Amino acid sequence: MAKKKKAAVRKQPPIKSFSAVIRDCAPEVRATARALRDLVLLELPDAAERFSGGRRPLAMYRTVADVCWIQPQKAHCNLYFTRGTELTDPEAHLQGTSDRFRYAKLRTVADLDQLPLRGWLHESVALNAATTKGGMTFQEVLAVMQRVCLALPHTKETLTWGIPHFRVGEKIFCGCSEDKGSPRIGLKMETFHAEVMMKLPGIEKAPYSRKGDGWVSIDPRRFDDWDEIEKLLVGSYRLIAPKRTVALLDAGHQGGRKRASPSRAGKSSPRSR
Fold first, then answer.
1. Which of 258, 255, 232, 234 is closest to 246 using CA atoms?
2. I need a surface site. Which of 54, 65, 151, 193 has the fewest CB within 10 A?
3. Is residue 177 helix, strand or coil?
4. CA pair distance 215, 33, nearest whole angstrom
5. Pick from 12-16, 44-48, 204-208, 252-256: least confident
6. What per-residue confidence (pLDDT) applies to 264?
């Protein structure tokens, strides 16, 4: 009996501009989203802007760390604050049940003046600045990961769930996220290796990890042995990559990339309309 062919999965094109984020929205939602963007960029003129696709695309804004996200919905627009649970909100305007995020729901442009959005933006920036003071920033950690990971055969960087991830082929082998403004490195180890390493300060089980799968989260401000971190990144790649791809690495393929240096920071993408 002939096997049925699998239906081809149509990939969504990457989101590269704010116009693409709001393209399929109702006119009122588009107007609200544009007004929110103008407010964020006016209050945070140095913020970098990037975009994430999916069923509900969003625009993300960061200074030394992520501050807020704009995500249009069917009949309203949400402004997410990445430090939402720590913001001053005595009248409980902010919504959500996450242990980190809270969001303001805005249905019309007029709603922008009904909430203390400017205060929340600046309070978020201050919280991030206090957290990141004196250590490597998210962008500096990401720059190191880019130089290490993209030097490996058949790798690429993708923005998945709004977070930079590194893939070999289509499989994720590590990622760079934030916890209250502080950078985190997620990667995979052999189970026994993970159990040993998690006894060290700054290394713990990843929030998304399942029992025994070896995924860990590293705080590079506490565990700052970068020679070891680089080895762990390559080790995670070896666990995820196909054998034939690992063979390319063992054969000395380095992709013409330079060795990483944690002292060099990465660059933010320019804003796109």
1. 234
2. 54
3. strand
4. 37
5. 252-256
6. 40
Secondary structure of 102-123 in HEC code, one letter for each residue: EEEEECCHHHHHHCCHHHHHHH
The answer to whether domain 18-132 and domain 138-250 are alike in fold is: yes
Instruction: State the CB neighbour count (10 A cutoff) for residue 3.
Output: 5
Query: Are the C-beta atoms of 155 and 168 separated by less than 8 Å?
Result: yes
Residues 38 and 61: their CA atoms lie apart, in Å, by 12
Q: Which CATH topology does 18-132 take?
A: Aspartate Aminotransferase, domain 1 (3.90.1150)
pTM of the shown model: 0.65
State which H helix or E strand residue 31 sits in.
Answer: helix 27-43
In whole angstroms, give the CA distance from residue 21 to residue 158: 17
For residue 194, give every residue at least 6 positions away whose Cβ sits within 8 Å of its Cβ, in sequence order, or none: 205, 214, 215, 216
Per-residue pLDDT at 84 exceeds 80: yes
Domain ranges of the chain: 18-132, 138-250
Q: What is the pLDDT of residue 4?
A: 54
Residue 258: closest CA among 142, 140, 139, 146: 146
SS3 sequence of 202-263? CEEECCCCCCCCCEEEECCCCCCCHHHHHHHHHHHHHHHCCHHHHHHHHCCCCCCCCCCCCC
pLDDT, one tens digit per residue, over 94-140 is 999 988 899 999 999 999 999 999 999 999 999 988 877 777 888 89
Cα(237)–Cα(23) distance, integer angstroms:
37
CA atoms within 13 A on the CB side of 64: 19
Considering the domain delimited by 138-250, tell me its CATH architecture: Alpha-Beta Complex (3.90)
Q: For residue 260, is pLDDT > 70?
A: no
Give per-residue pLDDT as tens, 5-33. Answer: 555 545 666 788 999 999 999 999 999 99
Strand partners, 78: 71, 105
